[in-house]
Design a protein that fits this description.
The radius of gyration is 28 Å and the shape is elongated. By secondary structure, it is mainly β. The N and C termini lie far apart (67 Å). The protein is 9% helix and 31% strand.
Length: 381
C-alpha cells in the first residue's frame, strides 16, 4: 500500500512539473526577444543623387544631370563602392555587401536613384548610421570599434588626383567618374527574420562642382572657354559631417548642401598649371567638372589666387573676356552684387552670355537638389 501511494504521488508531481514547463515555454514564445545570435536579416534602402527639376522646373533647358552619361553613375559592375555601418558615436561596426544594387532608370548611365538590398550576418543595434562611398580611387580598411567617420573622410583613401582632361567615362584606360559620399542616421530600427527592413533614402554628395558657360543665340560664336587656376587634388568626402542634417539644408524652400570647403592642406594648390579647356557638350554649351576651390578671403573678399574663366569669340579675335566667380546678377545667401563665391562640391555653376554691344554675363548657382522617394516596402522605421 505504501509503495503504490508513493508511486501515485510521484506521478502527480511529475505531471505538475511537465505542466509548469509547458506553461513557461509558451510564455517565452509570446515574448518578442531578439536572439543572441540571430539568423541573417534583410536590409534595404535607396541611394539618391538629386533632382534639380523639382525646384527649377521653369528652366526647361537646365541640365539636371540626366542628360549626361556618367554624371550620376556608380560603377556597379566593378563594385566601385563601399557601404559601412557605424554606431551612433561614429565608430565602425561592419561592412555591408548588398546582394542587389539596381539603378532605377531605363538608362543606367544616367540613373539618379539606386535601390539596394541584401542580408546582414550580425545583429545591428536599434540605432546606427549607414555610410556610402562610391567611385573612390581607393577604399579604407576600417577597424571595428576604432575607425570613425572622420577617419574615413580625412584618410589618404579619400584623396583623389584630378587628372585632365576630365571627361566622364568608365573606360578602364581613361576612367573618369565623380567620387561620392553619403551618411544617414537610422533610429528605432526593428529587424525581423525573412522580412526586409527599409532604412530610408541616403543622399550622396558629388565631390566635384559642375561649371558651365553657354550662349545659344546666333549673334556670336564661342571659339574657346578656359579656366585659370584649379586644384589638382580633392577630397572624395566633405569634412565634419556625421548625418544628412550636416550637409542638407533647406532655406526658403530650396535645398542647399554643405557650405564648408574640404581642401587638401586647407588651401588651394598654388602649382602653375596650363589653362583647363572646357568641353563643348552641346552647341553653344561648354562644361567642366572640377574639385572644390577657394575664391574668397577670410573677410569675404576676392582671393589673390581666385579662379577665373576666359571666353573667346570668333567675332572678337583680339579680345579675351574674363568671367569671375562672383554674383553678376541677383545674389543669394545674403551676398551683395559683385561678391565673389567659392567653388563648392555638389553645385552647378552656370554662366550665361547676354547679348549686348559686347558680351555680358549672368550666373546661376544651383545645388543638385534632392527629392525624397519612399518605396514603402518591408518594415518602416
Amino acid at each position: 500500500m505504501k509503495i503504490g501511494s508513493d508511486i501515485r504521488t510521484a506521478a502527480v508531481i511529475a505531471l505538475l512539473c511537465c505542466t509548469i514547463c509547458v506553461s513557461c515555454s509558451r510564455e517565452a514564445i509570446d515574448i518578442p526577444v531578439r536572439p543572441a545570435d540571430p539568423e541573417p536579416m534583410q536590409v534595404g534602402f535607396r541611394i539618391a543623387l538629386g533632382d534639380t527639376s523639382s525646384a527649377y522646373d521653369t528652366r526647361a533647358d537646365l541640365d539636371d544631370g540626366t542628360a549626361v552619361d556618367y554624371e550620376n553613375y556608380i560603377d556597379l559592375e566593378n563594385r566601385d563602392y563601399r557601404i559601412y555601418f557605424f554606431s551612433t558615436d561614429d565608430k565602425y561596426i561592419d561592412t555591408f555587401t548588398p546582394e542587389t544594387l539596381t539603378p532605377l532608370s531605363d538608362n543606367p548611365l544616367r540613373a539618379k536613384l539606386y535601390e539596394v538590398a541584401g542580408k546582414i550576418e550580425q545583429s545591428l543595434p536599434d540605432a546606427f548610421k549607414v555610410v556610402v562611398l562610391a567611385n573612390w580611387p581607393a577604399y579604407p580598411t576600417p577597424v571595428a570599434g576604432s575607425t570613425t567617420i572622420d577617419d574615413i573622410c580625412t584618410s589618404a583613401s579619400s584623396l583623389y588626383d584630378y587628372r585632365t582632361p576630365f571627361r566622364l567615362s568608365n573606360d578602364p584606360q581613361k576612367k573618369r567618374l565623380i567620387p561620392m559620399f553619403g551618411v544617414k542616421s537610422c533610429t528605432d530600427m526593428i529587424f525581423v527574420p525573412d522580412m526586409l527592413t527599409y532604412v530610408g533614402t541616403i543622399h550622396l554628395l558629388r565631390a566635384m562642382a559642375k561649371v558651365e558657360v553657354c550662349y545659344t543665340a546666333d549673334t556670336w560664336t564661342i571659339e574657346s572657354v578656359t579656366l585659370d587656376r584649379y586644384n589638382s587634388r580633392g577630397y572624395c568626402a566633405p569634412e565634419g559631417v556625421y548625418d544628412q542634417s550636416d550637409y542638407i539644408f533647406y532655406e526658403n524652400g530650396i535645398v542647399d548642401y554643405v557650405k564648408r570647403l574640404h581642401l587638401y592642406g586647407d588651401r588651394n594648390d598654388t602649382d602653375a598649371k596650363m589653362p583647363l579647356a572646357f568641353d563643348e557638350t552641346a552647341p553653344g554649351r561648354y562644361t567642366i567638372y572640377i574639385p572644390e576651390y577657394r575664391n574668397t578671403t577670410a573677410g569675404g573678399g576676392k582671393a589673390a589666387d581666385a579662379a577665373q574663366i576666359h571666353v573667346k569669340f570668333k567675332e572678337f579675335p583680339d579680345k579675351e573676356y574674363p568671367i569671375e566667380f562672383k554674383y553678376y546678377n541677383a545674389p543669394a545667401d545674403g551676398a551683395a552684387l559683385g561678391d565673389p563665391f567659392d567653388i563648392r562640391r555638389n553645385r552647378y555653376y552656370r554662366f550665361s552670355v547676354v547679348k549686348s554691344a559686347e558680351p555680358e554675363f549672368i550666373v546661376d548657382v544651383f545645388p543638385y537638389e534632392v527629392k525624397e522617394l519612399d518605396p514603402g516596402f518591408g518594415i518602416l522605421p
